[in-house]
Amino acid sequence: MQIQNVIKKYLKKIEESNWSNEENWSLFENHITFYSNPTLFDFVAQNKTDFQSKNGVEKISKYLKRNYTEMLSLKSREDLKKAVDEYPFNTVAEAQEALESYKVIEKSEFRFRITD
């Protein structure tokens, strides 16, 4: 958790509008996940357009989708059913893509088990 404290102190020193700058992106990309710091991860999701304009659409979308996919992998089946109607899965495109990918994987695993 020490790195999270260092990041927190660093970000306090710069204006929030500069958090999405290219020189700060590696902090988010390498150290901020929905699990390690949900508040900062949600900041990226909420400010996705700004992050994308400064760091690239594909890079930010991959980061978000990867995190949302990991988030889904930790949910129970019951929670997955609820997730469809909840933020971020009902509004953020990358979260919706992760949910769709997860459904496809779950269906193929189900088919695989039936054919065993």
Detailed description of the structure:
This protein has 116 residues and is mainly alpha-helical. It has one domain (2-115). The protein is 74% helix and 0% strand. It is built from seven helices and no strands. The protein has helices at residues 2-13, 22-31, 38-46, 48-55, 57-73, 77-83, 93-115. It is globular, with a radius of gyration of 16 Å. Residues 110-116 have low confidence and may be disordered.
Could you write a compact summary of the structure shown?
This protein has helices at residues 2-13, 22-31, 38-46, 48-55, 57-73, 77-83, 93-115. By secondary structure, the protein is mainly alpha-helical. It starts with a helix and ends with a helix.
Secondary structure: elements and pairs:
Layout: H1 2-13, H2 22-31, H3 38-46, H4 48-55, H5 57-73, H6 77-83, H7 93-115
Helix pairs in contact: 4-5, 5-7
If you average the pLDDT, what whole number results? 87
How many distinct folded domains?
Answer: 1
Low-confidence stretches: 110-116
Query: Mind describing the biggest β-sheet?
Result: none
What fraction strand? under 5%
Count of distinct strands: 0
What is the helix fraction of residues, given as a range? over 70%
The helix/strand series, from N terminus to C terminus, equals: HHHHHHH
